[in-house]
Structure formats: C-alpha cells, structure tokens
Design a protein that fits this description.
- This protein is elongated.
- The N and C termini lie far apart (52 Å).
- Helix content is 9%, strand content 43%.
- The strands form two sheets. A four-stranded antiparallel β-sheet has the order 1-8-3-6, covered by helices on one side. A four-stranded antiparallel β-sheet has the order 2-7-4-5, with no helix packed on it.
- It has one helix and eight strands, in the order αββββββββ.
- The longest helix is centred in the N-terminal third of the chain and has 12 residues.
Amino acid sequence: MLLAGAGQASAQTGKHAWTFANVSSGLHSVDHAVTVTYQPVKKLPRGALITQVYATRDYTGQADVQTSLCWGGTQHCVDIIGRSISTRAFNEMNAAQPLYLVHRLRARRDSPSPLHVKGNVTVWYATPPQPQDTPQR
C-alpha cells in the first residue's frame, strides 16, 4: 500500500524517491531506546536533495512508543505523532545520507517483550540539472 501511494506522489511531482523498510532490535524496558538506520540501496545522483520524507511505524499491542525521525545522526529530528509522518523538515538536505527512526518505549501495556518496531521511510528527492554535452569542434 505504501508503494502505491509513493508511486502516485512521485508521478505527480516528477521527483525521484527511495524507500527502505527495517525492523528495530527489541525494546526490553521502559525508557530503553533503539536507533534504526534507513538508507538508499543504490547510489543517488550527485547533488540529490530531499524534497519530502514520509515515515511509518508499526508494532504489536498497545505500547506507548515515542518515535523520532532524524537526519544527520540524532541531532536534527522531528517526532512522529501517531503511526506516520509526512514532513518537509529535511528539505534541501543530502538525500544520499541515511535517516534514522529512534524508538523509545514509554509504557509496555499489553505488548510483547521484547517489543520490535517495524518502520518504513520514503525519501523524495530532486536532482540538480546535469550539464549538457557540448559537441566538439
């Protein structure tokens, strides 16, 4: 379902995108945090810049999990409210660099132990115009 939506948005905007899915290591205790890396699986064109990011997260049970979407380590982050976020907070940043989902368990409730969080990150990016080949004389 995410891929269908990503394809539609990409076709509408005429931009490129990469998507990466990953699962966290186990959250064992309250206030325990794990950081999960999401990165392009192929080399992006030089100068590719982020234009939008969409991230989702899902897990079993009713745990209270705080998740942040980050770029450049864990210094530049936005919190995910609910199960997903669509943001332009990372616009103009290097699209070839990884993004991170940082998950922190706040309350376990009826969730399994350890708790694993499945995440998906889609990054739309634009590439700068490439120089035209000039004919030799």
